[in-house]
Amino acid sequence: MSSSVRLSLAGGLLFIAVALGFLVLNKDRPVVQPQNAPAPPPLMVNYVVAAHPLPAGTLARDEDFATRSVASADLPSGAIVDSAENKAGLRGSLIRDYLNTGDAVTSAAVLRPRDRGFLASVLAPGMRAVSIAVDAVSGVSGLVWPGDHVDVVLTHEIEHANVAHRALSETVLSNIRVIGIDQEIVQGANGATAGKVARTVTLQVLPEQVEQVTVAEHLGKLTLAIRSAVEPDVISPGSSTFGGDVSPALSRASAGTTMKVIEGGKETDWSFRTGDSRGR
Asked: What is the pTM of this model?
């Protein structure tokens, strides 16, 4: 046998011996399985839910809504996704069906202010909508919202009355529901914000009250007084306040003076009031 053949056989035997030794050394070691990549977390979505029970017919406010987070695959059908634009669109919307706390707010559950027939749906049966002009003061600094209940107060002057009774303020309508601010029947939707100074306020009134509001606007200035949210739904009796009821100085000024006039054997008392040229 040649030397080259012997070298080849020796090399082969050496390789086999090394391989067998490696197998013997590693036979008790655990087999390492390849690690799978962790599954990505599910995509989460925030959607709008009722923050508390909302009866049908409610004019919704910001505080009526909350948000809930779920995996996108578990998003309720028709649920409104939480976003600044969607929240603004819900502000002042009409709740069509009763929503319990935590119920998803869906497009079918609300009637938005710009939806067809919104105003007619907001009005209670037999009621009318009438708008009045307001400013920063008479409109309660922009803090009145649809759904609030207000008293409508008329302030005007009575000509030829004595000074104590010339200025008069009286409640002409009581416990009236506000259903709109400006030209949008909403509480600040589409970019409007709390505190915005309103120009007009739309009220829900009885048919005969439409005429009362119209005449009252002609007589003087109308001011809104917001009623407490927890106040019972009752009509307060109308009241009137004269300038003399507020200012003691006006009362004293209107008292004037009394003069005794003697004509022959007849005595007559004449009273003179400030601002009144006639005596009696």
From this structure: 0.57
Query: Can you list the residues of the chain whose pLDDT is less than 50?
Result: 185-194, 274-280
**106: domain range?**
39-112
83 with 152, same domain: the answer is no
Residues 104, 65: Cα–Cα separation, whole Å: 10
Q: How far apart are the first and last CA of the chain?
A: 162
User: Which of these, 181, 71, 76, lies nearest to 122 by C-alpha position?
Assistant: 181
For 7-37, give one letter per residue: b (16+ CB within 10 A) or e.
Answer: eeeeeeeeeeeeeeeeeeeeeeeeeeeeeee
* pLDDT tens digit sequence for 77-111: 899 999 988 888 888 888 988 999 999 999 889 98
Q: Domain count of the chain? A: 2
What the block records as the tokens of 200 is 């007009």
**DSSP label at 113?**
T
